[in-house]
Amino acid sequence: MDERPDNSEQLMDILLVMDQEKKTIQAVSGVKDGELQTKNPLEDNNDLLRVDRHGDMFSNFFSNLWNQLKDPTRFHFFRVPEEDVQRVAADFQQTVQTPTPEGQARMAQYEVQHPAQAQQQGEQQAQPAAGQQQQQPTDAPQQQPQYKYDVEKIDWNSLANLGIKREQIEQNGMLDQMLRGFQTDKTVRVYFNLDSISHANDSQLSLREAPDGRVVVCSHGILDPQKLQQQFFGHTFTKEDSDAIKTAGNMGRIVELTNRAGEKVPSLVSRNQKTNELASFPADKVRIPAEKNGHTFTPDEVARLKKGEAVVCKFQTKAKEGQKPKTYEAPIQFNAAKMQLELLFNDRAKLAMDAHKELQKQTANQEVPKTFRKQELTEKSQTELAGGGTVKVSGLKDQNGKPYQGYITWQPGQKYPAFMFPKDYKTALEEGRVKPAVENEVQVAVNSEGKTNEATKSLKEALQSAQTRPTGEQKEQQDRKQEQKEDKKEDKKQKQEQDKPKPRQRKAPRL
Which helix (H) or strand (E) holds 109? Predict the structure, then answer.
């Protein structure tokens, strides 16, 4: 199994910040009038602040940012890989809300010390106490490496043997991706010369550490998608697996692979869309953000995405100034080759949408409940529940007749909706376990036997909570409609009488 990079060793180029007062994790976008400007890191933002990739220059940059803030001590800053910012931000936010030793340790790995603290620690290390020998502290935080691989350890001869010059991959940005442990997204022309046999093809490049410590260049040539290997690290592909990889690009399920150490690792498998090379990713390392493009993932969607399934969600476009964002429906899936979620397009999107519609047909017989605790649910509420949404219900009564309200959710296969009190709903919403609720607009007035109230059954508008009789205005409207109804009946009766043929009168006989 191809080893994946350790994110703690990758280049950190996005600055996250924790506000100790608000208990939030945000991404830094700048400083204005001494106030820190931030953006939601769980959204796709192009205007986030990208920090310099060189250690010395970053120190100067961060010191300048720190000095511009009016109250810098209320913030904690973290330097995080750009391609991993959403996963890390979601993990940090959960740790802030529910602190754990493990979560706090992960945050400490990324934290950036403010200049005054860093200088103080440096002076303490440089000036040991009298009578003591200066020792290297064993528990001092180590400087995070900027790259997974050291550029000086690369075997440039192996690159030259492929017909590629160092300057070529430096100028097009491929070397930076390789040093961070990734396979390049661009391809280059690679030449092989084996004795009297020569071969050339377009390939992506990556780095790998050899047993002797050298860092060698690996070539990933473009393969024929119709000739995929039948086995992959101990797993034999079924026909369904092969079809899914060829058509969708992702296997869509978890399988056990055997790594080079002989360990069984539950993994997801995907196909590189450019080279058709297979790639794997450990299932236990899959991280799903709480939100993406305006869509908050439900617990069911998170579970399905972690299993490698494609999930159809409703996303929002970026709102232009003065306009509202547009909503669009699209499938999303975790890609092992990219090591992150990806939106599916074209034929891959059509396959996922067709499968989604088929699943909806199969679950169509599992009807959403039409009532909840004697209260009728509107069609809008039923549709919301069917889509995994949340509905607010008011006017409910307990055994003592005391009114109360709450929130309900429903999953296919459940006989009754699940109920939450407002406090529980607020917590679930903050943790991203439920969607924002819609109001169940129509409420049915009922008496103690649960039958429809005769005084209100003919009203077309919604009753207020616990209302059992119509108001004065509603009564007038009700009487007026009844009078109009009686007038129409009388007019119809008179017209029928007029339209009846009159009986012919007989003439008197002549004498």
Answer: helix 101-110
